[in-house]
Amino acid sequence: MALTSLRALPVWQKARQVSEEPTPLDFYCEDRCGHNAVCIKEELLVWGGYHERSIGSMYCEKKILWSFNLDLDSWYRVTTYGKGPEFRSGACSALIWPRWYIMCGHTYDGDVNDVHALNLITLRWEKIQVPTRGVKAIAPRDKATAWAHENSRIYIFGGYGMKPYAFMWSGEEDKYTLEVEFGRGWNDQIVYLDVEKKCWVRPQCQGPKPKSRAAHATIYVEGDVYLFGGRHQSERMNDLHRFNVESHRWSGTLCCLGTLPEGRTWHTLSRASKTDLLMYGGFNVEQKPLDDAWLLNMETLSWSVLSRSTGFPRLWHTASTNPHGDVLIFGGCENNILDEETSMITSRKVLLLRTKPFSLERLCLHCMYTQRSVLRPQWECLPRQFQEWLQAKEKVSEEMKPPISMSNVVLGQGPSLSQLSIVTKSEAQGLNDDQDFANYLFHAF
Fold this sequence. Notes:
Layout: H1 10-15, E1 36-40, E2 43-47, E3 50-53, E4 56-59, E5 64-69, E6 74-79, E7 92-96, E8 99-107, E9 110-119, E10 124-128, E11 145-149, E12 153-157, E13 160-161, E14 176-179, E15 184-187, E16 190-194, E17 199-201, E18 217-221, E19 224-232, E20 235-244, E21 249-250, E22 268-271, E23 276-283, E24 289-297, E25 302-307, E26 318-321, E27 327-330, E28 350-353, H2 360-370, H3 372-375, H4 384-399, E29 409-413, H5 425-431, H6 435-444
Parallel strand pairs: 28-29
Antiparallel strand pairs: 1-2, 2-5, 3-4, 5-6, 7-8, 8-9, 9-10, 11-12, 12-16, 13-15, 14-15, 16-17, 18-19, 19-20, 20-21, 22-23, 23-24, 24-25, 26-27, 27-28
Organism: Aplysia californica
Protein name: Kelch domain-containing protein 2
InterPro entries: Gal_Oxase/kelch_b-propeller, Kelch-typ_b-propeller
């Protein structure tokens, strides 16, 4: 039987825990940056990262996995099983169903090079027994990127970390640039994890490699990987590269049409359509958080501006595309993350970006739900899948009632959110009896 929703699995329902005296933390994912995210059908999964609190920077709970469904307008919090990864940020991840692999990152003890996999059906963690020392291990790092290929390999490129010379490394082909002040640096290494054999492999590549970097963005598209930007020393780059996973050939810097986006780090690349990639946000060389959105046509290699300014600056966020074509930006830092004199401001909002209208089917379902006081008796006349969607939406609204209402979504680009039956900030405030308490939570959560 095909999987329709992770939330429908008995293990997920058992793992969902709400406090005896519920708080907003039981119903709304906390703000964060440097986390990992992936879309499984209509559900956006979020794990890890860190945020700023009154006592300083703190990692997010390592046992907690969050799921967000835009159409249901709800978060779902589950507790995972087994010994998972340590608290961390800046890890990279890749999905080989049903396992979500979390690799490398930065912990309380510094950079790491371990690999863990979360079985999304059983919610149980497994530590993948790959070497972590010597020439069969990759050097510890964070701010690298990863992608999966043919359910058998997970590639990692670049990153920022300790000197790699005692690990899997080629002095002739791999480049490392040390930042002396911090004893860490940038690399241009590409390796892959053989998932079956549980070992790292350093492939022989062709073509000019990108410069050493970290906090860049990559996306896998049907055998090709597109890479944009990243940081190398004081430079925040705006070069575009393509890597073919079958031939292991790098393209070199691609010449693009149109106005090029400015150099940046901590941005994202996601799939906007069959032909277009969407790049969002980041951090420029002036240490300014960015709120622009760009489209890259993969056929013509041409850049175009989707939005010069959405009003929602984000860096070190995540961007995932669901089957509807919604690009869901979650979390990220809203101010200068490197300014030690000011506290980091991180977001808990889901930022929606779309390049096309919502489908007529989707609009009709939301309309039927909004008008359920009149149309509820007619639901039984609908096809089964539509009935199940409406019933699931109704069940969420009845059973998942937080102690205070908050809005989950803001619109960055695309059709109005008023077309969907989701709670806006003003509507959420109206649902709360104590307006002062509501306003406090909106600003403090």
